[in-house]
TrEMBL record:
It comes from the Bacteria. CDD domains: AdoMet_MTases, HTH_TipAL-Mta. Keywords: DNA-binding. It holds the Pfam family MerR_1. SMART domains: HTH_MERR. Residues 6-75 form the HTH merR-type domain. GO terms for molecular function: DNA binding; DNA-binding transcription factor activity; S-adenosylmethionine-dependent methyltransferase activity. Gene3D superfamilies: 1.10.1660.10, Vaccinia Virus protein VP39. This is Transcriptional regulatory protein.
Amino acid sequence: MIKHFTYSTGQFAKLANVTERTIRYYDKIGLLKPSFVMENGYRKYTKSDLLKLQKILSLKHMGFSLEEIYPMVSKEQNVKESFSMQVDLLDSQIKHLQVIRDSMESFVQNVDEKNIDWNQIISLLQMFDIESSIVEQYKNSNNLNVRISLHDQFSTNKTGWFNWLFNQIDFSKVNRLLEIGCGNGKLWEKRNIDLRNREIFLSDISEGMVHEVRKKLGKDYNCIVADCQAIPFKDGYFDSVIANHVLFYIQNLEKGLSEICRVLKDNGIFYCSTYGKEHMKEITELVQYFDSKVELSQNRLFDIFGIENGEKILKNYFKSVRFIPYEDSLIVDKAQPLVDYIMSCHGNQNEILGPKISKFKEYVESIISKKNSIKISKHTGLFICSK
């Protein structure tokens, strides 16, 4: 039982059943700093530090790297939120392990020692990649939610991106529609659509995302795991296809667009959104002023498919292409959502900013304090293409 308000490094390590060396290492790398440092240099830890350590050890056990844990423990969460998140992750692991167990039990019951099914053994081996799959699923889902949340909270255009995008779709000409890269299904939440004579297919390459969408939206939509470079439908099957900020992630864009054209009917409509080189440039400037080594993206996605080159690319596949801009910006007056957004990006920020995440947040807070807010420009919109 905890009897004291503060604990020395040794007491703290003993309570958590870890070595003092581990506690000192977490202190050194900035992952878990003590609440107090006495004049004599002694470290003092509190009950709140114990909760933080519990979260670190839990996430580490579940397969997250220390670089990935930095932003997860720096985010302000109450005790209930923290443990609920851990429970969700553990549930995913338990379900995955149950599938492995059932498969192994089936193998034991049906194995023929003289004629072993080696393909089944290979399948079992592949299923043991549990940590990376669940960790990756969580990261993808969480990072997407974080990025959407920043726009939801601070956008000056109160229509909202997903409402605006949904309103661009001409449903009078839609019987069958496919969304590729549906993510968390945000585009379809709380929509009043007559589905009696319509089939809407929501696809994503991530099985975890598809499971989340199916759980969220129920049976009204057909949720499938699919790669848009090999769409599992016959030629001319769909009236419309949607790709919301997806095309720049496709490994082979030419192959992906060819597949989209193939499954579209003649005169079918393709809706694809993207952004330009000026999009949210202030965030990049903010981060690089703090540390010039930080790159928020490994690739300049707008160079792959952006506002500047999108029309030229699309005209190779569609008879008509028009672009509709979405006028918006962000006025951010809170540091934590912006820090969360930055740490959700696809670059090297976790590695570089993670060990100094507290200082980085203080830096962002100081800028907001001087100007009351940070204005972030947005340069995004929608291409509407006819086959």
